[in-house]
Write a structure and sequence with these properties.
Low-confidence stretches: none
Largest sheet: 9 strands, antiparallel
CATH class of the largest domain: Mainly Beta
CATH topology of the largest domain: Glucose Permease (Domain IIA)
GO molecular function: hydrolase activity
Protein name: M23 family metallopeptidase
Helix content: 10-25%
Distance between the termini: 58 Å
InterPro entries: Cell_wall_metabolism_enzyme, Dup_hybrid_motif, M23ase_b-sheet_dom
Order of helices and strands: HEEEEEEEEEEEH
EC number: 3.4.-.-
Keywords: Hydrolase
Number of helices: 2
Strand content: 25-35%
């Protein structure tokens, strides 16, 4: 009986491992990066906002300003690992993309995706808004990139170099 249970667990973990390997291969197969706000340009975000002081924390990302309701697009291929409401970010979507990077889309007016959905580059995942701690600011997308593995405190990457090279849709 114990031997059957051990074999069942072994089979389960082998299948789980293969599934994760296939998922990562799928995500890595298309590592393109696009501007996450439709029709945004360099004029719509600051080149120097990463790390700027905020009340109780540092700004870990870039704010891309746009009209409320403007489509927010997945910047890369990946899997939605969270969508919901957070205190600071308001309505947010978190996508796990190539190279174990997490792409965080915050202050959305509307979320248009579901958890565990495989998103394609340029797929609409929401609309620009000013939810969370951005209620008193003009509508914008707070966009940040964080390393998932290895996960450590302060593992945010400045998204501006990615945004500057991003293709537009």
């Amino acid at each position: 009986m114990r031997r059957k249970i051990k074999i069942s667990f072994l089979v389960f973990f082998v299948i789980l491992g293969l599934s994760l390997a296939l998922l990562l291969a799928y995500i890595q197969a298309d590592a393109r990066f696009i501007m996450p706000v439709k029709n945004a340009s360099r004029n719509d975000y600051s080149q120097k906002s990463m790390g700027s002081p905020r009340v109780g924390h540092k700004h870990q990302g870039s704010d891309i300003f746009a009209k409320k309701g403007t489509p927010v697009l997945s910047a890369t291929r990946g899997i939605v690992i969270y969508n919901g409401i957070l205190k600071l970010g308001g309505k947010v979507v978190l996508v796990l993309g190539p190279d174990f990077k997490m792409y965080y889309f915050a202050h959305l007016d509307t979320i248009m995706t579901t958890k565990l959905h495989m998103v394609e580059v340029g797929e609409q995942i929401g609309e620009v808004g000013n939810t969370g701690n951005a209620k008193s600011t003009p509508a914008h997308l707070h966009f940040s990139i964080r390393n998932f593995f290895p996960y450590k405190q302060g593992s945010y990457e400045d998204p501006v170099p990615f945004l500057n090279k991003a293709s537009r849709r």
